[in-house]
Amino acid sequence: MTKYGGVVSLQLTEEQQSLVATVRGFAARECGTRERRLELTNGGKTHHSQEISGKLADLGFLGLSIPEEYGGAGGGLYDACLFVEELAYNQIPVGSYAVTLIVAHVYLSWASEDLKKEILGAVVAGTPTAIAMSEPGSGSDVASLRCRADKVDGGYRLNGQKMWITNAHLSDHILLVARTSDTGDKHQGISMFSVPVSTPGVEIRPIATMGAEVNEVFFSDCEIGPERLVGTEGGGWLQLIAGLNTERVIVGALALGQARRSFEDTLDYVKAREQFGRPVGTFQALSHRLAELATETECTRLLVHDVAQRVDENPGKLMPQEASMVKLKATELAKRAALEGIQMMGGMGYAVEGGMEEQFRTAVVGTIAGGSSEVQRDIIAKTLGL
């Protein structure tokens, strides 16, 4: 048995225990103070430090679940989720990595061998990558997208606008989801393309938000070769659906790490802060809420870890109910833990110096992006026959 996140874990192997310990040691050395994290992130204006990403790449962390033939370690999704969870828990400023990992697994499943070598090799070396699905008129309803990839001599011509694209400003390539045909229902005729951001006609514009770094991306008569097609033409929707297990479990692992960080910071504060001659955490109004958060955090940990292991054990099997439960439970918990932290820490929770307001801004996007909590509840309800 090993101590993990304040509880005894029966699940982690010795190698996984070593992974967790090594990541925590790295965080303590490289970015263990708020001042150092601000230094690495341009005063908190970005969530990604290429310096830290490069050091993690040198240690082999960024390719944990990438096969060895592409420079990775050949581990499973569970290993990658443990790493992502620890990134969030230790506030290591590589905010691009969760999305990069999600996109890497799409390439791993569907791309040609040449594209796998090109993209996955770059990911392992520390280069972020992005996926462009949402549009001004198609967020949760991705299949209503209008961005087009029309066949022309020598390949495809791309035209359209994408929104809310994470990592676009950091990436060398964007995995574009576009319409190649209008025949059949809206889920047909969708395809994926790996588009170099250096392609003439690609324009990236930042969108100001509460915290997440996202972009608009415009494609204006961009021409790419047929070798940039990922998977089969017209098969993009099925390829997206097949990747939902991985996407939602990775997002859940990230949110679990955020929740643990907010909970522990709040606990430390209420133990130290005294009012009326005693620590404020000893007042029942706070202690019972913290007891509930501790219980919810442990339940969420068990859910995230269990589903990640089951995905590894059943490659190719769709798990819409379990994957949506992971994302819903973990992201809602991360939001709740940070909001409770702000309330229990009082003025310091609201102050930038206290750090909790940033943790809330970071956590709340998880309940919106990648399929909102409302969408996840709807998916779960449908799997129940409702």
List the topology elements.
Elements: E1 2-4, E2 7-9, H1 14-31, H2 34-40, H3 50-58, H4 77-89, H5 97-110, H6 113-124, E3 130-132, E4 148-152, E5 155-162, E6 173-179, E7 190-196, E8 202-207, E9 214-224, E10 229-230, H7 236-242, H8 244-272, E11 274-275, E12 278-279, H9 284-313, H10 320-345, H11 347-350, H12 356-364, H13 373-383
Parallel strand pairs: 3-6
Antiparallel strand pairs: 1-2, 4-5, 5-9, 6-7, 7-10, 8-9, 11-12
Helix pairs in contact: 1-4, 4-8, 4-9, 5-6, 5-8, 8-9, 8-10, 8-12, 9-10, 10-12, 10-13
What does this structure look like?
The chain has 386 residues and is of the alpha+beta class. It is built from 13 helices and twelve strands. It has helices at 14-31, 34-40, 50-58, 77-89, 97-110, 113-124, 236-242, 244-272, 284-313, 320-345, 347-350, 356-364, 373-383, and strands at residues 2-4, 7-9, 130-132, 148-152, 155-162, 173-179, 190-196, 202-207, 214-224, 229-230, 274-275, 278-279. A four-stranded mixed beta sheet has the order 3-6-7-10, with helices on one face. A four-stranded antiparallel beta sheet has the order 4-5-9-8, with no helix packed on it. Strands 1-2 form a two-stranded antiparallel sheet. The model has no long low-confidence stretch (mean pLDDT 94). The chain has three domains: 2-128, Acyl-CoA dehydrogenase/oxidase, N-terminal domain (Butyryl-Coa Dehydrogenase, subunit A, domain 1); 131-237, Butyryl-CoA Dehydrogenase, subunit A, domain 2, CATH 2.40.110.10; 243-383, Up-down Bundle (Butyryl-CoA Dehydrogenase, subunit A, domain 3), CATH 1.20.140.10.
